[in-house]
Fold:
Amino acid sequence: VQLVESGGGSVQAGGSLTLSCAASPYTIRTYAMAWFRQAPGKEREGVAAILFRSGPTFYADSVKGRFTISRDNAKTTVYPQMNSLKPEDTAMYYCAANIGVGGRWDDTRSYRYWGQGTQVTVS
Structure:
């Protein structure tokens, strides 16, 4: 399973970014998909997840109301739409996938497959 993230960049506080995670059609339609982030010196933390074809979705408290995760089966992509960005959102963002999630959605051990990451910087 290959996951390819894109869409990172630099943005001013209050701005928006949409990240993308591209994968095979089977992966996008079948796997549990999630986004994690890791800031320098901090542990990787779960941001959002969409577990099955049409949900459910889960969000970290720190991003609720600001981030929206969705999947586009036609484009074989999973997006987090990130609005009202804050400097504390600065991190490397990673896409993750697994055939199912046996544990917590925000536990890195629940996901076998990972992308290389895309940097988001908010100033």
User: Anything to note?
Assistant: The mean pLDDT is 91.
